[in-house]
Amino acid sequence: MPQGEYLGMTLTVLDLDNENLAYFQHCADHDFHLQQCVDPDCDLIRYPPGTACPWCSGREFRWIPVDARGTVHSYGEVHHAIQPAFRERAPYMILLVELDTQAGEPTEHEALRVAGNLVDADGNFAGPDLVKQVGIGSRMRMVFADVAEGLALPHWTLDEDAEQPDTPWRYPQGVNGV
Residue 104: which residues within 8 A CB-CB, separation 6 or more? Predict the structure, then answer.
């Protein structure tokens, strides 16, 4: 049972949670793998890990390596963190990144999207300057934060090798930039 401390919080993946155990073990190896349905009429990759395909309900799958690069589809910018461990890191971003792999499939509304925090290239929570640079359309790549043996968390950072939009779309800012 992988267990570790992350930002002062205990994270545990129970031994009975086979899909998440395998997922986080791949992340701990700094390899991004997702489940792919083996039904030839479906063959779709899914996230988050689960016991059945959300499109065909098939229960058979294989783990496949996935290129962990994509485009910000949406984001949340947190200015008033409730969790004590995150208060000193505010503002921070939680990103929903549409992967280049399987982009727009099975439909433009159900594409393969993976959530994670915005971090710098070294895996540290992004500072306010980086937060201001990222928005919808930004190109991202995955990095991993090691928590414990067999457990790492996937996060997102700007893809330095990708062409970035001149001005990524951002939600309108109100008074005091919030």
Answer: 111
> What integer is the mean pLDDT of 125-154?
95
Q: Where are the domains of the chain?
A: 3-158
Mean pLDDT of 58-86: 95
Tell me if residue 75 falls in helix, strand or coil.
Answer: strand
Nearest-angstrom CA–CA distance, 127 and 57: 41
Q: In what order do the strands lie in the sheet with 61-65?
A: 45-46, 33-37, 61-65
State what percent of residues in the chain have pLDDT above 70: 97
- The conformation of residue 99, written as its DSSP 8-state character, comes to E
Average pLDDT over residues 78-98: 92
Separation in Å, CA 87 to CA 28, 81, 110: 26, 5, 33
Kindly give, in sequence order, each residue whose CB lies less than 8 Å from that of residue 123, ignoring residues fewer than 6 positions away.
Answer: 143, 144, 145, 155, 157
Integer CA distances (angstroms), 92 to 25, 102, 121, 173, in order: 26, 28, 15, 15
Q: How far apart are the C-alpha atoms of 100 and 108, rounded to whole Å?
A: 13
Query: Residue 87: what residue type?
Result: R
Does domain 3-158 bear CATH number 2.40.50.840?
Answer: yes
CA distance 172 to 174: 7
